[in-house]
Write a structure and sequence with these properties.
The protein is mostly helical and 224 residues long. Helices cover 63% and strands 0% of the residues. The protein contains twelve helices and no strands. It holds the Pfam family DUF924.
Length: 224
């Protein structure tokens, strides 16, 4: 696991480069490892995010980091704080999703301004567009699926299979939104009443966001 032992445990004065160094490997030219992937998507970073970045998230919530939107890298760091760190720090509460509209706006504007295209690696680009995948508007989910597919086509490196899993997750989230118009697994925490079809889906418990890379590989092998 990538850690920053020389950094203070908690600070409101982290820079955007501090955020990027924390979230991404030190050498962006190296393929992403399974360990890093699981650290990102399976909760490996949770304790470190909570202990270190809660004060920074509070600043972002107050609008004190808005100037980070000026450049591609600093905008990416702000998106990480609003979209990723908020989900961890406010996990299992409605506040986990409260900053989604702001993160979505930053991502859409950044794509339009060329900030997305200016990023150096496919994983930086993936986290830049993830707010589109976290929203509940089908057009944005479709765009995520298209962007994720484009990253695979442009990616010759060893982490291609992880990108394929990421792209399949994007398509699966899109399919959930196409079916229900929202993410049913959020209904309880957001105080929304589930429909009978959603209750049936929730009872099965096979949610896209909890699917592991190993499960995806197994399903893929069976289908092939």
């Amino acid at each position: 696991m990538h850690t920053q032992p020389d950094q203070p445990l908690t600070s409101a004065n982290e820079t955007f480069e501090d955020v990027l160094r924390f979230w991404f490997p030190e050498d962006d030219d190296q393929p992403i490892t399974r360990q890093r992937f699981e650290w990102w998507f399976c909760g490996g970073a949770n304790a470190e995010v909570i202990s270190r970045f809660a004060p920074l998230l509070a600043r972002a919530e107050r609008g004190e980091l808005n100037d980070w939107s000026a450049t591609p890298r600093s905008r990416l760091a702000l998106i990480l704080v609003l979209d990723q760190f908020s989900r961890t720090i406010h996990r299992s509460t409605a506040r986990a999703f409260a900053l989604d509209p702001l993160a979505l706006s930053l991502a859409l504007e950044g794509i339009r301004l060329g900030h997305y295209a200016a990023l150096a690696t496919p994983w930086q680009k993936t986290f830049f567009f993830l707010p589109l995948g976290h929203c509940e508007e089908l057009t944005h989910l479709q765009r995520v699926a298209e962007l994720a597919k484009a990253l695979i086509e442009a990616e010759p490196r060893a982490d291609r299979e992880l990108l394929e899993f990421s792209a399949d997750q994007a398509r699966s989230h899109r399919d959930v939104i196409a079916r229900f118009g929202r993410h049913p697994h959020r209904n309880a925490v957001l105080g929304r009443e589930s429909t009978p079809a959603e209750r049936e889906y929730l009872a099965i418990g096979r949610f896209v966001h909890t699917r592991s890379f190993e499960d995806w590989q197994d399903t893929r092998m069976v289908s092939e």
